[in-house]
Amino acid sequence: MASKVLLFGASLALLAAPVAAEPDLTGSWERYPLPGETPDPRWAPGPIPDPPLKPEYKAPWEENQAKLRSRLAESQPAGDNYVQCIPDGMPAMMQGMFPMEIFQRPEQVNITQEAFNQTRRVYMGETLPKWDEVDPMFYGRSVGRWEGDTLVIETIGIKEHVQFRWAPHSEEMKITERLTLLAPNILRNEIKIEDPYLAEPWTYSYTYRRMPGYKLLEYVCEDNRDYVDENGQHRLRLQGE
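RE: above sequence
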């Protein structure tokens, strides 16, 4: 009888024990390490590998990479997005070239990138729809869940012309992110991209550092006079042209 009482008491104690709160990711974050900064080896991410494209997609991608290197050597823009005032979209906006802000509440997590004021919305606890059930967008449809202290975000529905590192993808592309605090002010984002164009999942990671007190600035692509001419050269449209 005594053993049953002890077991009953232990069960009540487990029920009464507080549920561990999810980590609070709210705040402003910057890419870690910054250019020229010597990173802590515990937190530094590894280099981003080339996308493991299938052979029929890899050759055109390599040709585009050669064009990219040539344009950079001539101090030309790496792509036309910024020239045309087009935002990065997913997953490129998560590379953190500018500060970003995370706003977290139980039912939704918003992530805003300072560049172009890009905002993606992660709906917590919802079921991820099929890729053909959503309209293609720059940021897609994102749903999230907590696995212990890790925020897992799954995203589908990215427009085919919204690319990261010029890597082609289909409408079926799925992005899975795992965001984990390595330290109170250090956040790791492990990214996995799955797509029929890939021979295997493309995986890489970013590390971000919290920026206490930083408030995002307005970044609007307005009255843009930059353009790329018919020869691929970066030009500035002068008044009266």
